[in-house]
Amino acid sequence: LSDFTPQATFDIKKCDVHRLEAGPPVKAELTREQGLQYYRTMQMVRRMELKADQLYKQKIIRGFCHLYDGQEACAAGIEAAINPSDHLITAYRAHGYTYTRGVSVREILAELTGRIGGVAKGKGGSMHMYAPHFYGGNGIVGAQVPLGAGIALACQYQGNNQICVALYGDGAANQGQLFESFNMAALWKLPCVFICENNKYGMGTSVERASASTDYYKRGDFIPGLRVDGMDVLCVREAARFAADHCRAGKGPIIMELQTYRYHGHSMSDPGVSYRTREEIQEVRSKSDPISLLKERLLSNNMASVEELKEIDIQIRKEVEEAAQFATSDPEPPLEELCNHIFSNNPPLEVRGTNPWSKLKSIS
Amino acid sequence: MAAAARLFIRGAHSTLAISGVGTGKQSSLFKLSAGCSSRLKAQRHVAHFTFQPDPPTTEYGATQKMNLFQSITSALDNTLASDPTAVIFGEDVAFGGVFRCTVGLRDKYGKDRVFNTPLCEQGIVGFGIGAATAGATAIAEIQFADYIFPAFDQIVNEAAKYRYRSGNLFDCGNLTIRAPWGCVGHGSLYHSQSPEAYFVHCPGIKVVIPRSPLQAKGLLLSCIADNNPCLFFEPKILYRAAVEQVPVDSYTIPLSQAEVLQEGSDLTLVAWGTQIHVLKEVANMAQEKLGVSCEVIDLRTILPWDTETVCKVTAAAPAVTSATVV
């Protein structure tokens, strides 16, 4: 054990900056513990998403399912840079963030299968998972960004030194409500880190075909911005730390563009190869896979062994398998739960069911 | 996802003995539905209805077998061919659209007439209002009716009031907004909504919902021709499931005219869209099991709706049920 290098410094890609004198550091320090932790986190998200793919194809998960594999470095890097008491909100490609924000794989998969053991009690599904200081999980594109600005306002108002990270995609970057949020955040110097996860495609539309400017880190105009290599967990961490410090220093909002990639299509009903080539996907997998990049770093700097990482992989597969077992065997929520929590009400409310003689009760 | 019907018994003229119905357990109709529900639950059906095509017609010329999305494509094809100012735009319409309603049109008519917009519903409708006001026949697509709300202000405050506020100097009557609508079984919160109720209290726009491919093409062509901004909601669950013989050439079905699909003397059932097919089944069941004779009306245009037909009919069959897709 003591043969391993306890800490190493790595060169990371320099970030492009907008309206900033300097960007995040170009060197990142990584301890062995951190390396293993980031590896574990990213591998867990990867295996969880692949398991979700499998369960979806078996029709055990139904409805909508947007998978995050390929983008693990973003979720892992951001979480490494912020505190659990900070706040985070994202769009519908949210399973990775649900995990990094503290929800177990068990509860995530059970939510995907719509069971009572799911994090939202089986009533939210893939796009609506929540946790303390994690506000989902949002279906309407771009709608979560003004919410994020509001959460940041609450942090500022309460003076608790917390920040809000509000994520959106390259497709959402053209929604009007984002610019309304940018203006409010800048005007009132809200501690909000706006992060654009640019995975190059909004559903099937490439960024060049959707945006007059694909420099998403500059789209906040008067808000400073960073363009970050989103496939390198260390790069993401350093940039997120830089951004968080910026906000906590009271300098107002900041935008981060994470250049990343998703291996799956937009959702499970999109094969993902009609608007991009298999060669492109394969190239990213072989040259820029976030987990492989970290693994190479750990191994070539003697910070971990092949056997050790293999052991971690085995443990992770086991945990995911057990979670899938739970998710398939846990019961669905009972019909009595269907209409609860529509309002916060007292006394109970009667809700019309599918025919006039079946009335359901709504209580909260 | 069966009918959500509320029974209003009005007239003293009703000769119906329906005391058993309301109490639930006694009525055979209820037993039938309960049986349906449990059967549905076991089989995981999306929705309990069978699409009932209209009998083929030669009224409008030669016909071809088409499903709902194909009938929409046909209407748009006819429009682009006959109206050089017509343009179609929305998210992903260029490759054919997420429901294949615009397949082949870009290749046939050019990329300046069928083009994609970025992801911005408010922008799409605002842009459409402008284009229509300047003289283009603007056909905007909102990818799902659930996403129409960022454009609500543009529709209600701009499109609906343009003619009135300019004293008839300007209007955006050339605008038609299309959107897939209604429950589909797996759509959940944001791919299942039926938002027409939010719009039908707004004078200045028209809201139309077809029940079938034949109706859809004729009604859509009427909306496009109509000099008022129109919202055309297409029941997404019928896109593939509904197949009919549909005329190949252009034809119109009048707006603000309800259609009586079946005559009856005891009860009137009014609906639109997918629910028509449920109510037709209900009418048959009511006749068979209860000896109740039902009139079935498809409203077709929800705003402005055909008050005359509905009121005239319900004068004869006093009880009215209105039902809509949940």
UniProtKB/TrEMBL annotation, chain A:
Top-level taxonomic group: Eukaryota
Pfam families: E1_dh
Keyword Phosphoprotein applies: yes
Main location: mitochondrion
Cofactor entry: thiamine diphosphate; Mg(2+)
An annotated GO BP: pyruvate decarboxylation to acetyl-CoA
Gene Ontology MF terms: metal ion binding; pyruvate dehydrogenase (acetyl-transferring) activity
One annotated Gene Ontology cellular component of this protein: mitochondrial matrix
Catalyzed reaction equations: N(6)-[(R)-lipoyl]-L-lysyl-[protein] + pyruvate + H(+) = N(6)-[(R)-S(8)-acetyldihydrolipoyl]-L-lysyl-[protein] + CO2
Name of the molecule in the record: Pyruvate dehydrogenase E1 component subunit alpha
Keyword DNA repair belongs to the record: no
Keywords: Carbohydrate metabolism, Glucose metabolism, Magnesium, Metal-binding, Mitochondrion, Oxidoreductase, Phosphoprotein, Pyruvate, Thiamine pyrophosphate, Transit peptide
The protein's Enzyme Commission number: 1.2.4.1
Record localization: Mitochondrion matrix
Role, per record: The pyruvate dehydrogenase complex catalyzes the overall conversion of pyruvate to acetyl-CoA and CO(2), and thereby links the glycolytic pathway to the tricarboxylic cycle.
Domain Dehydrogenase E1 component: 41-335
SUPFAM superfamilies: Thiamin diphosphate-binding fold (THDP-binding) (SSF52518)
TrEMBL record, chain B:
Domain Transketolase-like pyrimidine-binding per the UniProt entry, residue ranges: 66-241
Substrates-to-products reaction catalysed: N(6)-[(R)-lipoyl]-L-lysyl-[protein] + 3-methyl-2-oxobutanoate + H(+) = N(6)-[(R)-S(8)-2-methylpropanoyldihydrolipoyl]-L-lysyl-[protein] + CO2
E.C. numbers: 1.2.4.4
Coiled coil: none
Pfam families: Transket_pyr, Transketolase_C
Protein name in UniProt: 3-methyl-2-oxobutanoate dehydrogenase (2-methylpropanoyl-transferring)
Organism classification: Eukaryota, Metazoa, Chordata, Craniata, Vertebrata
SMART domains for the chain: Transket_pyr
Entry keyword set: Oxidoreductase
